[in-house]
Design brief:
Keywords: Ligase. Pfam families: 2_5_RNA_ligase2. This is 2'-5' RNA ligase family protein. One of its GO terms (molecular function) is ligase activity. The protein is of the alpha+beta class. The protein has 4 helices and 9 strands. Helix 2 runs antiparallel to helix 3.
């Protein structure tokens, strides 16, 4: 599975890691927001994403809404028109060009969030009780990348230092 993710700046990264520490979680990936996922996001599509991201950038996010969904505890991002526009632009590139896209990340179905915990109902409830209430976290995009969940490989598409102003 390939994920298209946004990694956060150092301050937001530390804040999410502190939440993880409080609930005893140590994920494989740094804190992030997943914009898309598919069985394969190939090299040609990645090149086009790099080109589009040279003209676009993910706006700052406010991670604020602590909520439980299915078997997960997540910190939801405040959704605005700018974030939805970038998400839509990403999916315009991916449309019809990736294998087996995941429906929950498609425009109209996507709920932007940073996952804090996945587990059974009791674990999610206990973690919610430990963390509630959560202070809002301002997260700036540090990098947009494709992550291969099987190998752990990370292919950066855009770094904050090269983002348009």
């Amino acid at each position: 599975m390939h994920l298209l993710v946004v990694f956060f700046d150092d301050g937001a990264d530390r804040a999410v890691r502190e939440l993880w520490r409080r609930i005893g979680v140590a994920p494989d990936l740094p804190p992030h927001l997943t914009c898309a996922s598919a069985a394969v996001i190939g090299p040609k599509v990645r090149a086009e994403l790099r080109e589009d991201l040279s003209r676009l950038w993910v706006p700052d996010l406010w991670l604020h809404a602590l909520s439980a969904t299915d078997d997960a505890l997540v910190l939801g991002a405040v959704v605005d028109a700018e974030l939805l526009a970038v998400h839509s632009a990403i999916h315009d590139v991916l449309a019809g060009r990736v294998k087996h896209p995941t429906a929950r990340h498609l425009p109209g179905s996507w709920t932007p969030h940073c996952t804090l915990l996945t587990g059974d109902d009791d674990a999610v409830k206990a973690a919610f009780a430990e963390l509630h209430p959560v202070a809002p976290i301002r997260a700036k995009a540090r990098q947009v990348a494709v992550v291969d969940t099987q190998t752990g490989g990370i292919d950066p598409l855009r770094n904050a230092s090269t983002a348009p102003r």
